[in-house]
Amino acid sequence: MSPRKNRRTVSGRPPAGGSWVQETEDGPDGEWIVRPIAGANATKAYRCPGCDQEIAPGVAHVVAWRAGDAGDDRRHWHRPCWQARTRRSPRVQRSRNAPRY
Questions:
Q1: Among 10, 48, 75, 90, which residue's Cβ finds the most Cβ atoms within 10 Å?
Q2: Where in the sequence does UniProt note compositional bias of the Basic residues kind (predicted)?
């Protein structure tokens, strides 16, 4: 069998141009810079702000920050959580016996 030819050329190092692959996304919540992180490059655990669950090491995800910032306020998101961020309401923490209305 011959090896697969459709492999991505993304590695743990920046491309030859010297900068990481990142995109600018416009949304109703402002302009964001989004950088995809491959599972092989995800070496630490992070907490996703969209679902408040842990992103385990080795799981592909995205890192996003506002375009005006210098990346100081970066957040690591699961990819589906990032795509659904405008459709979700804020998570309300209730006490155990509080009514749900």
A1: 48
A2: 1-10
Rounded to 10 degrees, what is the CA torsion of 78, 48, 75, 32? 50
**Would residue 39 count as lying in a domain?**
yes
Tell me the two tokens of residue 1.
Answer: 């069998």
Q: In this structure, how many other beta carbons lie within 10 angstroms of the beta carbon of residue 10? A: 14
Does a structural domain hold residue 2?
A: no
Would you state the pLDDT for residue 28? 87
| The residue to which tokens 């996703």 are assigned | 48
DSSP3 helix / strand / coil % (the chain, rounded to 5): 10, 25, 65
* pLDDT(25) > 60: yes
Please give the C-alpha separations between residue 98 and each of 15, 43, 89, 95, in angstroms, as whole numbers: 53, 39, 19, 5
Domain that holds residue 30: 26-83
- Total domains in the fold of the chain: 1
> Does a structural domain hold residue 17?
no
* pLDDT value of position 2: 62
